[in-house]
Amino acid sequence: MSSQKTISRRQFIIGASAAALSANLRLSGQETTTPPNSGKSRIVLVRDLDVLDEKGAPKQDVVQGMLDTGIQALTGKPDPQSAWKSILKPDDVVGLKNNRWPYLQRTTIPVDSALKKRIMEVGVKETDVSIDDLGVLQNPVFKKATALINVRPMRSHHWAGVGGMIKNYIMFLPSPIDIHPDSCADLGSVWNLPEVKGKTRLNVLVMFTPQFHSFGPHSFNPKYVGKYYGLILGFDPVAIDATGLRIIEAMRREYFAEDRPLNPPAKHIAIADTKYHLGTADPQKIELIKIGYDKDSFV
Are 27 and 73 in contact (CB under 8 A)? Predict the structure, then answer.
């Protein structure tokens, strides 16, 4: 297939008719009704065609609405404030672990801001909230954190297959490169570190414009970035990553018009389930709540 192939129009180029359709799919109170607890790992996929502006940057107000709708559906609470009060306390010290990979960083900045707004509305002091990535081990707030919020964009990854929720905590290792052997298979072990274990209150995988293909370390090419317009929220990082991986794999099939597996495979996700018991990677054990735009959701 020619390297000059443009990204599939059916999936990635949304015309005026789809934009009109989005008006009928805007988030509503009816759509956030939570089904009875099934005993499965509940995650919430929220999509909104209006989240990106004409330059592809996320709109702050739409991002806030998507997060609010998602956490209400996740917790079953009637409003964002009560939802956040069910996962945080005013005396918590909160580290918001983001990901500053420069090529997709602008997609997470509005998410970071929206999360911090709701965290502070719980009553957490601003001095007890910090947003960081590379400096978490030196950051004084992270050093005394009682709660972590895990947020990052999804992308293909040279060493791990994909970078998602599980991998986002790699910077809690003094020497992150030590986890690279065997396609970063043991990334789930990072979640047992004392700086991390038992502290994560929420995971948010940013799927506005995921990168589904790459070559080499830290490589980026905009032709391998697709508009997905989504966020995935949950308490189970493995369930979120497993679902994000399914989406990435489907985007690859759509773009390349063939089944082209990730190289290396994202084996750390299944291993986080079977070896480290961090969550579930089995779609049959995941309760996926879908809200908003559903075309080409791939799950």
Answer: no
Q: Are 97 and 169 in contact (CB under 8 A)?
A: yes
Q: Which two tokens stand for residue 179?
A: 């986890």
Distance CA 147, CA 96 (A): 9
- pTM for the structure as a whole: 0.88
Domains of the chain, by residue range, sit at: 37-292
Residue 161 parent element (H or E): strand 161-163
How far apart are the C-alpha atoms of 138 and 205, rounded to whole Å? 24
| Cα-Cα-Cα-Cα dihedral sign, residues 282, 284, 289, 291 | positive
**Helix/strand/coil for 293:** coil
Tell which residue, 164, 91, 101, has the closest CA to residue 134: 101
Q: What is the pLDDT of residue 34?
A: 38
Tokens linked to 9: 């129009």
pLDDT exceeding 90 applies to what percent of the chain? 80
